[in-house]
Amino acid sequence: MDGARDWQAYAAGLKPDGRAWIGGQRVPPGPGGVFDCISPIDGRKIAEISRGQATDIDQAVVGARRAFAEGRWANRSPRERKQVLLRLAELVRIHADELAALETLDMGKPVALSRAVDVMSAAQCLAWYGEALDKRYDEIAPTPRTALALVTREPIGVVGAIVPWNYPLLMTSWKVAPALAAGNSVVLKPSEKAALTALRLAELACEAGLPEHVFNVVPGLGPEAGQALALHPDVDCLAFTGSTRTGKQIVQFAGQSNLKRVYTELGGKSPFLVLDDADVEAAARACAGAIFFNQGESCNAPSRAVVHARVLEDFTARVAELAQSYQPGDPWTRGTVMGAVVDRIQLDTVLRYIAAGRQEGARLVTGGARVREDTGGFYVQPTVFGAVRSDMTIAREEIFGPVLSILPATDVAHAVALANDTPYGLAASVWSRDLDRALTVARALRAGTVHVNSYDEDDITVPFGGYKDSGTGRDKSLHAFDKYTELKTTWIRLPAGIAP
């Protein structure tokens, strides 16, 4: 697909299905009924989504447990599971236009980015874990000659997954791909703000050959379906990506139920350190590209630029200039790089933080207003604040919007102190022409991912997750298998044998 008119016509012809997927089929709405799915592009209703309740979650979990106990998926050979995941990855590629259009309808990002980034990365994730699952080996421990100790990994059982709305399909693949590759059954609760691609993925998984009840998707509200999944006593582990506040609640729910393992990937307030010897032009481009990408709705967005006083003026001016090229536009139009924020609630949240920045004395350099209001959609300008102090609200709290705070630093030690002065620890970046200096600073930063002279460069082969209030889990890479498997030791007593 190419061109605004083609994409709009294509999207207009879609008939999104918001019914839950349980047991290999769509199921009619349960006692919770439905809620409207509103597109942030123009504020119109695009679908009705099932409002899952505890009864719907229980139905999905009971089926998932039965499928696991019967070995419908868990007992298949690694090669068979691999073939299904590879077929699913290929189906995602075949249906890339449909999935991209659904993603854009649902959460407002430019369709070109939905297709090139979200859909293609999800397909790659599914294929990578499919390829990886039959290349992992267990261990034999160095025991005495009278024993043989096997250390093996087994699927954990029923995996509950709760994913956010900012990268709905990609976050779903990050959870589902390794969980299925390990042989588990999965019950997924997508965000109520963007559930359409996860539901479509479940249909494609069935088409790819995944057995019934192995992958179930129950949409609904967090306090209803999400809480029911976290409290369910027959869920063995829960993988959650979302806000720190909700993540803390989910950990409590796990403790109230069966002490299920909970792996969280939570919020961020990531620092972007620009030292006095940095390439200011390259740093400004990377910072603007990362904070304004996806409308700023990224947990690892570099929302705090910590800039040495010697280059502060140049960096601020250049980022403000670059912000003009990220003005929101029609998500269906070729060349649009920033679309709508996900809904009116998020729009109001972003505008409230912008107002707080002004009230607390930060200097508004550019942006700060809602735009394209006549479309009925939810768009906000890329916004840059200067003269930000680390105690200001916009420097402390996750905004989840296209808002950059620039904090001045007097020297390297001050920059590191400002960078670490946060309850979060998801990502960070340091810019310097001196690699030894940059690496020394990188080691001092408390974050799960530290970029050097780059930002948001990524690969499926490396883990993603954070320190402190940014969570406890790691998505991506072979390390993701740790979340979805049990480690078992089998100790075998051997006869003494023949003496050497």
Provide a descriptive summary of the structure in words.
The protein is an alpha/beta fold and 500 residues long. The protein is built from 15 helices and 23 strands. The strands form 7 sheets. It has a 7-stranded mixed β-sheet, with helices on both faces. The protein has a 5-stranded parallel β-sheet with strand order 9-8-7-10-11, sandwiched between helices. The protein is globular.
Features:
alpha/beta, 15 helices, globular, seven-stranded mixed β-sheet, 39% helix, 500 residues
What average pLDDT do the residues reach? 96
Strands of the largest sheet, in order across it?
14-17-18-13-12-20-21
Number of extended strands:
23
The percentage of residues in β strands lies in 15-25%
Q: Work out the helix count.
A: 15
Structural class: alpha/beta
Unreliable spans are none
Query: End-to-end span in angstroms?
Result: 72 Å
Topology, element by element:
Elements: H1 4-12, E1 20-22, E2 25-27, E3 34-38, E4 45-50, H2 54-69, H3 78-94, H4 96-107, H5 111-132, E5 139-140, E6 147-155, E7 158-162, H6 168-181, E8 185-189, H7 196-208, E9 215-217, H8 222-231, E10 237-241, H9 244-256, E11 261-265, E12 271-274, H10 280-292, E13 304-308, H11 309-323, H12 344-359, E14 363-366, E15 370-371, E16 379-380, E17 383-386, H13 393-396, E18 403-409, H14 412-420, E19 424-425, E20 427-431, H15 435-444, E21 449-452, E22 467-468, E23 485-493
Parallel strand pairs: 7-8, 7-10, 8-9, 10-11, 12-13, 12-20, 13-18, 17-18, 20-21
Antiparallel strand pairs: 1-2, 3-4, 5-6, 6-23, 14-17, 15-16, 19-22
Helix pairs in contact: 2-8, 3-5, 3-7, 4-5, 5-6, 10-11
